[in-house]
Amino acid sequence: MASKKYGTLYIGVTSELKHRVFQHKESLIPGFTQKYKVHLLVYFEEYADIRDAIAREKQLKKWNRAWKIRLLESMNPEWEDLYNDL
Q1: Quick one: pLDDT at residue 64?
Q2: Which helix (H) or strand (E) holds 54?
C-alpha cells in the first residue's frame, strides 16, 4: 500500500485483502497506515498458503525502497489504486 505515488509504502499480510484495505482506507486501524495516510492498494500478491505469504512479506520488508518501487511499477506503473478491482 502507498500514501501516494512515490510516497510512504506499507507491506503487510492478510487473509482478507478487500476487508483489510477497507480498514486502512477508512483509518479504522490505529498505527502506521493511519498516521501516514497509507490508503492506496498499489500492489499485491496472492498465495494459497499463509506461510508462503508471511515468508514473502518478511523478504520484501528487507528490500531497499528502490527494489520495492521497481517491483510495484512492473505491475502498476501508474500507481493506480487497485482496491475497486478486487
Answers
A1: 98
A2: helix 50-62
Report how many domains make up the chain: 1
- Report if residue 81 sits inside a domain: yes
Q: Is residue 27 part of a domain?
A: yes
Please write the tens of the pLDDT for every residue from 11-36: 999 999 999 999 999 999 899 999 99
Those residues whose C-beta lies under 8 Å from the C-beta of residue 9, and which sit 6 or more positions away, are 1, 2, 38, 65, 68, 69, 72
For residue 24, CA distances in Å to 30, 50, 84 come to 9, 21, 14
Assigned C-alpha cell, 84: 475497486
Give the domain extent around 66.
17-85
Cβ neighbours for 60, distance < 8 A, ≥ 6 positions apart:
11, 68, 71
**Cβ atoms of 32 and 10 closer than 8 Å:** yes
